[in-house]
Each structure stands twice: as structure tokens, then as C-alpha cells.
Amino acid sequence: MFDTNRLLLIILVTILPFVWIFKLKDFNSKLFFGLFLLAFFTYSGLGGSLKEVDEHYFSYYVIYTFFISIGLYLGRGRNKKYVVRKSTENKLIELIDKYGTTIIIVFFLLKLTSLIYPQFLLHRLIVPPAPDLTSVFAERFETQESSFFESIRYYLLSILSPFFFLSLYKYRFKPWKLVLLLIIIPYIDYCRVGYIGRGDMLQYLFIIIASLYVFLPRMRKLIVISFAVFLPTLIIFMVNYTQIRIGGTASVDNTFEALEHLIFYESNYPLWFSTIYNEPFDINNLITYFKWLITLPIPGFLKGDIGLKGDEIAGLLLGIDSGQRGFYIVLPGLVGESVYYFGKYLFWIHSLLVGLLVGYTFRILNRHHQMGILLFYSVFELTYFINRGGTGSGLPYILKILLVFFIILYFYSRYKIKYDR
Known about the structure:
mainly alpha
């Protein structure tokens, strides 16, 4: 049960540090930072008002909120129109016009290889499998080593993904082609495993709606009305989908009941804080985190097993080891994660770091209108996924994928400018 007084206080201490968001002017800024605030409040703030949450959580949440807001504000930069070199803008347009179609084709062909190796499953594109959530979740806890080819394919798809979404800009005024290309990606993933996550569904739905809204201004009223009508059905579907994937049955058919379930499911992460808070701090956690952070740009197949301690955190919170019956990955939220890795006195560094990286990434993506669809894809990665799944779900996208993307664009632009001269 939520404590009303505590909830009102948490709303207040969440809004005050983020008051600058309500003064933003441009659509992309309001969309990105508004969704970040909503996701942050949902996964780290709202659950803090549950009566069962540790009493120390509130003070840590207040400090974390303050520093992540500072980080986002500084990373984003001042609210002014960016000065973009015309030559850089032209080269970006040239890249899309000249290589966009090739990039899209290569991306899809590479994606299709997942239906050929290690198993031949191309026929599933015509006859898709029935949802098999039980098998999918059982396989998650089995030790499976990827082959060298699978590792290379995964890395290439990751690096190509921002170029793919950048290339989709050429279809911004062709809604049917754009929507079809965006639907095919999750469809291929579904055909491969017989499952698609809620987050992936929402991400591509968001990209489609946001892209159509921005690039087809005449349809904006229709898009808003259609979304408003569809939203209750979407909420009910998400709740029932959650119940089915954990072995239950679809039993919710009322929007308000579904919303109540959804709010509790998506906001109870602070309940795990007590266990983390009472666990003695281990400096090795901090070392592990920075080792992981620094080596993120290195492809996984070259650096070996250097990752965060997701299994160890889950084992600590559940009281059982990985592989035992009843084990699953627990998501402690950003505040809980910061205390686990940085300790009770340095946890604020985690929030400042996250804010700076996310804010600066938005700053770069928002400089060029050609990156609009890529920005909409990034919105979910850097607002929903990072707040729900922690930095392990968001920072790799910045430091492993977008970093390479920006480096390639930089050298392409410099080379073309120099060559043209």
C-alpha cells in the first residue's frame, strides 16, 4: 500500500530539481526529458512511497534525484539553437541519400542470418511460431555459449543499428514503407525465438507514433486521437502479457484494474533497497563497475567476460544462487544499483555520471534533424530501459554503439570535406 503523505512528498522532491524540464521549448527536448522524468519517477520514486520500503530510501532518493538532474542539465547544455556546420549537414544528407538503401538492405540480410544459423528457421517468416514464453524464460537461465559467428553477427548488428535508423530518414514522407520497415525488425526477432518483450513492443510502437507525428503534421490530430483510443487496450494487453509470461493466465479486462496492476508491477523496485542498504559495502563492486564501464567500447568477443554483477545482486536479494529453483534477475532500480556499486557515501557519483552521459548523448543526437528517427529509437533506450533495467541496459548503447557511430560519422564528414576541397 502507498503512503499518501510520503507519495506527495516524493512527487514534490522529484519535480523541484527537474523544474527546468517544464521550461523547455522544442518538441524533442520536452519529449526526451519528459519521458526520462516519468520513467525515473515510476521506477525509482513512486515505489518509495510504499509503506514496506526501508525508511532510509527517501534520503538516498532525494540526493540521487538532485544529482541526476544536474547531470542531465549540464550534459544537455544550454537551451539554445545549436550551430551546425552546413558542410556537416550536407554530408549527413549525402550519406543517407547515397548509402541509406544499401545500409537498410545489409542490416536486414544480417538480421535474417539469425533465422539460418545456428538453426534454419526461415520458414517461420511465412508460418510464425505460437508464443512460447515458458521455453524462452527457461533458456535464459541455461548456460549457453555463443559461437564466434554469432558474436560477430551480434556486434555488427549493434553497430549497424544507428545507421539503419538514420537511413530510415529517407522514408520519412513515405509512412507505409517506414512503418513496414520498423515492423519487420521485431517480427524477425519473434520468428527466431517465439517471443518479444514488452519493452521491444513499446519501443517500436513509440518510434512509429513519434515519427508519424513529427514528419506528417497534417495527421497529428488523428494520431493523438487514435493513440488515446488505443491506450486503454494497450494497458490491458501489457498487464495480461506480463501474467502470461510468468506462467499465469490473462485475467484482467478492466482498464482501471489493469492500470492498478501495472503501477504496482512497475514501481516496486525500491522494496529491494533494504537488503542492499544493510549489506556491507565491497570495494570490489566499485572496481567491477569501472572496469565494466571503461571496457564497454571493446567488442564482447575480444574482451571476454567483463560485466556487471547482475546474478550476484539477484542472488543477494533473493537469498538463492543462480541456477537454483526460483531464481530470476531482480531489478533494484537506479538508486539501489548506485548504493550496491558505489556505497552509501559515493552513490551520488553514479547519478551524476548517468545524467551527464544521457544528457550529452541527447545533445549530440538533437543537433541534426536527419537523426530524428534515430533519436526516437534512442529515447526508449535512454529513458525507459535505463530506468527500469539499470545502467547495464542503457550505458552500453551510449559507450559501445553510439560512440562507434559518432566516430565513424566524424571521420566520414572530415574525409568528405577534405576530399571535396
